UniProtKB/TrEMBL annotation:
It comes from the Bacteria. Gene3D superfamilies: Medium-chain alcohol dehydrogenases, catalytic domain (3.90.180.10), NAD(P)-binding Rossmann-like Domain (3.40.50.720). Residues 15-328 form the Enoyl reductase (ER) domain. SUPFAM superfamilies: GroES-like (SSF50129), NAD(P)-binding Rossmann-fold domains (SSF51735). This is NADP-dependent oxidoreductase. The lineage of its organism: Bacteria, Bacillati, Actinomycetota, Actinomycetes, Kitasatosporales. Keywords: Oxidoreductase. GO terms for molecular function: oxidoreductase activity.
């Protein structure tokens, strides 16, 4: 079985030499364990942080060890009660063809309810991030005007649509290409969208939200957060979910210069980690499954095929080559 190892810690943008696809032996599962043939694994922006040797909310990847992350696959051998060959499971040992794990670390999923890859995206971690970040952390309420950055990505595309479903007065998104902007307004029902590469975010947001915004869902940081602070109405709320604009930065990035406005506008800016919101999981799955079935909620995935493409898929994600969830599918 092949697996991806981190072999050197990237400085700035990762390079191909920082990673190696290596062969690992597969043995029969020990007591209480299962072997899973992965069908899809997830590449996510947070993995860039785990390539640095710094203390964070998730431990750094170890050099010369397989990387990990969300994956779904099929059980091919079981030495654990309750798991049979042919079962499909969601688990945390991605970046490899065959995963050997304690059965208690795997959750059974039903491929008849949704395509397996959906458990990594719209019905999985990124979907829950959108749901919890909008409804719980930002305390979204009907009539709010919502701005979301990274709006054509896995999290952002769901945030904007969920806000519309729940009665937002206006939803504005930003993304990094004109095609993505078109998708947001023509397919996902955003009221306005702009390409942040076409001009200053602050000006483009002012134009897209002439009456201001009440909620900002931040996936990007930097100039996007600064623009949101300027456009906020009184008592605006921001969910600080990600700051992808700085993940590959080697120098401190310019920050919002208008933080003092937070006082006068009585803003609330709150960081979030999806792992704190697992209590919302049942409600999230019920709502999202319903919206998918009714056609109110749409999603897209960008699929890269073949384990040898794992590194390229991750880099493509950082470069914005994905629309919706970036997934690596194995043959
Ligand atoms: P996405 O599907 O949104 O993929 C990443 C996207 O980021 C790219 O497609 C690209 O789109 C955009 N991007 C890359 N560089 C920049 C840049 N310099 N400025 C603006 N946009 C950029 O990923 P996810 O939906 O999985 O994650 C979105 C954000 O949410 C990330 O910041 C991530 O770290 C965070 N997150 C946080 C969680 C939490 O618990 N706090 C959980 C899950 C995700 P484009 O073409 O538009 O530039």
């Amino acid at each position: 079985s092949r697996e991806w190892h981190l072999v050197a810690r990237p400085h700035g943008w990762p390079e191909a030499e920082d990673f190696a696809l290596r062969e690992a032996a597969v043995t029969a599962p020990a007591e209480g364990r299962i072997l899973v043939r992965n069908k899809h694994f997830s590449v996510d922006p947070y993995m860039r942080g785990r390539m640095n040797d710094v203390k964070s909310y998730t431990p750094p990847f170890k050099l010369d060890h397989p990387m990990d992350g969300g994956a779904v696959g099929e059980v091919i051998a079981s030495n654990a009660e309750g798991f049979a060959v042919g079962d499909h499971v969601l688990h945390g040992l991605g970046w490899r063809e065959i995963a050997d794990m304690p059965a208690k670390h795997a959750v059974k999923v039903d491929p008849d309810v949704a395509p397996l890859s959906a458990y990594l995206g719209v019905l999985g971690m990124t979907g829950l991030t959108a749901y919890a970040g909008l409804f719980d952390v930002a305390s979204f309420k009907e009539g709010d005007a919502v701005f979301v950055s990274g709006a054509a990505g896995a999290v952002g595309s769901q945030v904007g649509q969920m806000a519309k479903i729940k009665g937002a007065s206006r939803v504005i998104g930003s993304a990094g290409s004109d095609e993505k902007v078109k998708l947001l307004t023509e397919e996902y029902g955003f009221d306005a969208a702009f390409n942040y590469k076409n001009g200053p975010v602050r000006d483009q947001l002012k134009e897209a939200a002439p009456d201001g915004i009440d909620v900002y869902f931040d996936n990007v940081g930097g100039d996007h957060l600064e623009a949101a602070i300027s456009s906020f109405n009184l008592h605006g709320r921001a969910t600080i979910c990600g700051m992808i604009a700085q993940y590959n930065a080697t120098e401190p990035t310019p920050g919002p210069s208008n933080m003092a406005l937070i006082i006068g506008k009585r803003l609330r800016l709150q960081g979030m980690l999806v792992g704190d919101h697992t209590d919302l999981q049942p409600q999230f799955v019920r709502d999202v499954a319903g919206w998918l079935a009714s056609g109110e909620l749409k999603y897209q995935e960008t699929e890269v095929r073949g384990i040898e493409q794992g590194y390229e898929a991750f880099m493509g994600l950082l470069r914005g080559e994905n629309t919706g969830k970036m997934i690596v599918s194995l043959d």
